[in-house]
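Can't paste images in this forum, so I'm doing it all in text. The chain is below; anyone willing to post the predicted C-alpha cells underneath?
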Amino acid sequence: MLISVKNIGARLIKTARRRHKFPVRKFLANESGVTAIEFAMLGLPFFAIIGAILETALIFFASQVLDSALNDSARLIRTGQAQAQNYNVNTFRTAVCSELYGLFDCKKLKIRVSTINTFSSATLKRVVDPKTGDWKLVQSYDDGAASSIIMVEAYYKWPTMLDFFSFNLANLPGNERLLSSVRVFRNEPF
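Text version of the structure:
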C-alpha cells in the first residue's frame, strides 16, 4: 500500500479541521443551560414590569381610599354633625383616618377645611414646594354655618419604592408622591 505525501497531508489537514470544529459544533449543539440563560436575560425586565404594575396599582388604590375617606368625612360637615360636635382640625383628621383602613400614617395627613364665597372662587394653591418637598399648606378648619359653601382638602405624601428603568411615580423630592382629595359643597340647611 503506497501512501503518498499528498494523501498524508490531506488527511492531516482534514483531521486538524475536524478536531478544531468538533468542540465548537458540540458546544453549539449542547442545549443544557438554555433555560437559565433565557431566564437571566428576561427575568430582570419581567420582574421590573411586575413591580411597576404593583406600585402603580398600590398608588391608585391608596388615592381612591383617601378620596373615599374624605368624601365620607365631608358628609359630617355637610349635614351639620361636625358643627354639632364642635369638630376641629384634629377631630376631623381622626374622622378621615377612621376610613383609611390603616394604609396611611395619620400624623402625616394634612387637612384644610375652609369657607368660600362662591363655587367659582374655589381655587387650589400649591401645598408643597416642588423643589424641596416641604409643606406650604397651613392646616385650618372652618366648617361654616348652614348653607355655607365649604372646600375640604386632604393631602398626603405617599412614599414610592421603585426607581429604575426611568420608572418612578414620585412627583416630589425624596421619592414621594403627593396624593390629594378635594370636595367643594354647600352645607345643608341644618
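Residues 123 and 151 are 9 Å apart (CA to CA). The two ends are 123 Å apart (CA to CA).
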